[in-house]
Protein 1
Amino acid sequence: MDEMLLEIKHLKSYFFTRKGISPAVDDVSLQVPKGKIVGIVGESGCGKSMTAKSVMDLLKYPGRVAGGEILLEGRDLTKLSEKEKRKVRGEDISMIFQEPMTSLNPVVKVGKQVREAILNHQKMDKAEAKKRVIEVFRQVGISEPEKRYECYPHELSGGLRQRVMIAMAMVCRPKLMIADEPTTALDVTIEAQILKLIKNLCDTTGMSCLLISHNLGVIAQMCDYVYVMYAGKVVEQGDVFTLFDHPQHPYTKGLLASIIHLDELPERLSTIPGVVPNLMHLPEGCAFCSRCSEAMECCKTKKPELHDLGNGHVIRCFLPAEREAAHE
Ligand SMILES: Nc1ncnc2c1ncn2[C@@H]1O[C@H](COP(=O)(O)OP(=O)(O)OP(=O)(O)O)[C@@H](O)[C@H]1O
Ligand SMILES: [Mg+2]
């Protein structure tokens, strides 16, 4: 059994708007073992980023965690004080986003920004901190680190900026890195380098990673375990081989079928007909029902619970139970 670093249990993160409640994350349970890479995949708007932001306590009003637990080594992060949360964000968990330009301060040299990240959380003098920055720059494959230290963000390429962000995320040696579409803004060659870097850092430092992507190719190449989300819920989960070799949920099958057509529809998961339903007006039954090629009568009126297929492979669908019933 893997030792768990992060355990999300029955997380609910809702938006409380004047028009109604939007259940962006609805009863999501997810586990990240130590040293492993866990992926979340799904179409746009299914709740991937909201799940990540809940862990980092970065939900913006009117969104907030409305229920559930987020355990980091057994400690419930939702119960911490602001001060304790800040400490967790600085020392235990760090997050990298899609567009590094928005996370970097354009008027401060990148080296200094990373140095500040150290000084905010660790007792170290400036000279020592600078040394550590240069060391981490080297570790994340930034060539001529002393020279790059003095650069402003706009003087660096997109790939280098993302390396700076990864360096910033790594300086305090976090236990968990949350990477939300970390390479979506980069071209394919640079993307491959950055992904290799993240995997390498996990392998060599024992860090865990929660990797969010709408790209199944990225997930397949990087992850040990995968969670597929749809309309705020986990609809399938399993280890990466099971999930890609034996997908069971019609949604996962649809997503996988769409990568085969990648040359026609690059990067788009649009071969499943129809659209994701509006979260404020979810159908009575299964949220995927109207798009599902295998939908049955019960799917229109009842919401499927998670069904355990064994060996950590779980799906939210009536099909397995139906099949079992048919064989009895
Ligand atoms: N300010 C808001 N008010 C109400 N609902 C919101 C707000 N922001 C986001 N949501 C809801 O949260 C849902 C989940 O959004 P989230 O950002 O987690 O999606 P995602 O899976 O990360 O998508 P993407 O692939 O596009 O990044 C959205 O579908 C939307 O309905
Ligand atoms: Mg997102």
Note: The chain has a mean pLDDT of 92.
Protein 2
Amino acid sequence: MLIALESVSQAGDVIAVSSPCYSGLLDILATIGRAVIEIPSTETGMDLVQLESALITQKVKACLFTANHQNPTGHSLGNEQKQAIAELASKYQVPIIEDDVFRELSHQRTIPLPIKYYDLQGWVIWCSSVSKTLAPGLRIGWCVAGRFTDKFIRQRQARTLGVNQPIQLALARYIAKGYYATHINKVNRALRTNSDQYIAFLHAHLPTHADVYAPSGGLVLWLTLPAVDTQTLADELSEKGVYVKAGAQFSSTRLCNDCLRINMGNLASSAIYVQLKQLCKLARKRMNT
Ligand SMILES: Cc1ncc(COP(=O)(O)O)c(C=O)c1O
């Protein structure tokens, strides 16, 4: 994804991201000197009017979007929106870097389509990896770069000086033997159970005006705790060894300051319930005051 960004933009260029956006991506964009324009996105989808207006007026050099099981919200875009984004990319000739690392972690039986599916003219650079499905340490990803393929290959060569072929071959064999598919099915069944259990607990222990978004896939839960400064809450929790991320980390606007992201990748063990209980207790205290 970094290679894709560097293939189509330079320092000082404007990149559109959907907002809220994974803080790691915002950090990468800041490190490589890209300016960011945030396009609001909620559970009902991305604000395509704002996107089109930004494409017309803001000299957007590229967009960096996740359509499926976004981090931090767990939201996914509908197929009409995916198609509309692909069409806007062609219309305004702006590349879309599609970061699709969570697509395979669908808690439903079907894996959702990417924006790339609707890309008729090669403006979408579709990126993913096995970081979320197997292990981030493998550092293996892939990219379908459309009309930017040559640029991408040149940039990759300059960046990485080659690939870890033994690990790639081992992974290819793992996939070909069917072990990867079996693994994904197992992980997704577990994630679905985790999601149900975490959400049931949060609903039972948070005030009724708190909101917990139930995602159709991915590894995170997005909470809205109206009027709570979640950064202070997250700091307080971290002193007790409970690690959550405050909404403020995912946007330069103040729109997510009462939101919180929690990870639900771990089985709901008694240790996890102790942590969730601490979160709910402190959130309840702050919501009542
Ligand atoms: C949206 C998103 N993109 C990319 C990454 C990082 O992926 P990788 O380890 O493949 O670089 C993450 C990790 O959390 C992520 O949430």
Note: Residues 2-175 form a domain with the Aspartate Aminotransferase; domain 2 fold (CATH 3.40.640.10).
Protein 3
Amino acid sequence: MPAIFSNVHRECNVGKNAINHGAWMVWLASSSVSANDITFNMTRGATAISQQVYDLHMTIFYICCAIGLIVFGAMLWSIVHHRKSRGAKAAQFHESTRIELLWTAIPVLILVAMAAPATSTLLKMEDTSKADLTVLITGSQWKWHYKYLEHPVEFYSLLATSKKQISGDEPKSGTYLLEVDQPLVLPVGKKIRFLMTSDDVIHSWWVPAFAVKKDANPGYINESWTRIDKAGTYRGQCAELCGKDHGFMPIVVVAKPAGEFDGWIAKTAADQAAAKAQQQDLASQTMTLPQAMELGEKVFLGHCAACHQPAGTGLPGIFPALKGSKVATLPEHRAQHLDIVLHGKSGTAMQPFGKQLTAQELAAVVTYERNAWDNKTGDVIQAAEVQSLLNPVEPNKDK
Ligand SMILES: [Cu+2]
């Protein structure tokens, strides 16, 4: 039994016939020492703001407890001492100006005492000025995209928990559903401004240790910030019900000392530039059908199978089947098929994959969808075609 409950239980047995106010107050005061150890309480977190939010939460909690004890204590005492069986007679008085003033003034004073620290903390939480680093966070069914606005670095961060753990075929790790392939890396001791938005539905970026929880809305940018005190790994989740895999888009932040972070961001920028150059190289190569099918299957299982299912059957009434569908089999729908994969389909859960995958991966996955599960169209899409659809040559505007 958690300590708080055993304390409550013990205190409830103290004096069966009378409420021991003294004991309750002692418990209330002493519990402040252990409040942080209670696992279902808020965390103190790893930032000055999260500590302030925690203190504010505890202050308001204790004020509420005290009000509850006084009000319910007075009620219970009155019920017991002025009960009918004791021959109590109701007092007959009306319109006492003094009492009315008192029961208006006391709650107003309590509310002001609560509002003052709450407002001060909220104002600090909203002050995103003078940031050292800005990260654009984009929620997308069902992953997060991070872009460092001062550096040429951006990437998607996807759930890394294996499908076998999810299906129960493997034992679950200690960080089950709270692990990603690429964590967001941030420097310690710097003010980091977050800009939140979404590609599709409303998500919410929530890391309890930073006391940051902000909605990521499509077509709108929300702001928040943090300054992390300690290096380490911090975990969070999407906190807005955003569809089928809402529970599968965790957040992992790795906070590194500033010097280490500078090294990491420089290396990542160089790696990403090299990968981009390599992708352009690959885009000029021609794939055979078996090569495209091999790569396409990997891409399909990693990005498409959650909705369209590994066997291409979809989920009837929710996600369309690709196996035997007109779009994935008929020659006249080939261009539409490519367009949907690259740019998404508005009004549906089908998101644009054009900026999430390389031209080669996009070509391979469309080839796979057009040839797997008896679709067998024989079509082989090449990366060069995808590239031309992604970056159409702009007509000369001078003409
Ligand atoms: Cu979400």
Note: Strands lie at 133-140, 143-148, 153-157, 184-187, 192-198, 203-207, 212-216, 222-226, 232-238, 250-256.
Protein 4
Amino acid sequence: MDFLRPASWEEALAAKAEHPTAVPIAGGTDVMVEINFDHRRPEYLLDLNRIGELSEWEVGQESVRLGASVPYSSIMEHLRAELPGLALASHTVASPQIRNRGGVGGNLGTASPAGDAHPALLAADCEVEAESVRGTRLIPIDAFYTGVKRNALEPDELIRAVHIRKADGPQQYSKVGTRNAMVIAVCAFGIALHPETRTVRTGIGSAAPTPIRAKEAEEFLNAALEEGGFWENGKIITPAIAQQFAALASGACNPIDDVRGTARYRRHAVGIMARRTLGWTWEQYRGVGRTLEGAA
Ligand SMILES: Cc1cc2nc3c(=O)[nH]c(=O)nc-3n(C[C@H](O)[C@H](O)[C@H](O)COP(=O)(O)OP(=O)(O)OC[C@H]3O[C@@H](n4cnc5c(N)ncnc54)[C@H](O)[C@@H]3O)c2cc1C
């Protein structure tokens, strides 16, 4: 196995163009496991750790440009206000050691349906900045996941950053696991309220071949909130609306039975998480969100 160690982003793109089968390694918390278990024996490893800019982020007007290798621990520490859903999801990843190494670029690279960043990214809304020597393109997150552990990257492309919409309202992330830490999700749910556009977005993890949004649940809720004037009057969401949202979220799942849980349990748990996280975010919106909006 050859080890390529580019000193700059341009060198990394050139190396990937020359060796499209080279496997990028960032934190290595997925790649090294696969190599150790002999699941993968790449001809080339492309080490991205000398490229400092991949561990940096910029907070813009509308979005955060998050370098592909920014570790989860930095997101938790520095971007809690701008990216609350992703910060909560980061908290649930593995252990402090893994959170200091692993990042969103690696989670996207692996594209496991159980990756914790995905539901938060889907709910917040973001674009993946992919680059090759041929140029740069922004891939909408909805088009990024193409199959079980497959993504929309071309063989010569690398992820440079993720452009994540800054929170304009409350966000939540909920995960079911067999214990509190060091656990892969049995299933997970992310939700983001977007009062500016009066929309709610969702993300579901580990309950379908890819991370998905519960689109019918979103459409139902968006219409119900609009119809009832909920965004203005800040009324408590009725149990009937919350239940229907939960049922549609549960219906969006297409899970399998595996060692971590049954398909039936996953559908059930996603419904529960959808109802609970909607309640938490809406309470936050009623309490703080609307006061801030009114004051602006
Ligand atoms: C003990 C343990 C516990 C874990 N627990 C969790 C958990 O709770 N939740 C969770 O979501 N994950 C978990 N993981 C998996 C892993 O930590 C995450 O997926 C993490 O986000 C991977 O990031 P990384 O930088 O280490 O990626 P790496 O291992 O370096 O790379 C992962 C994949 O992404 C590709 N890649 C990396 N960077 C780029 C780039 N810039 N452009 C293109 N492709 C790239 C690699 O080629 C590889 O295919 C766990 C892993 C371990 C070992």
Note: The radius of gyration is 19 Å.
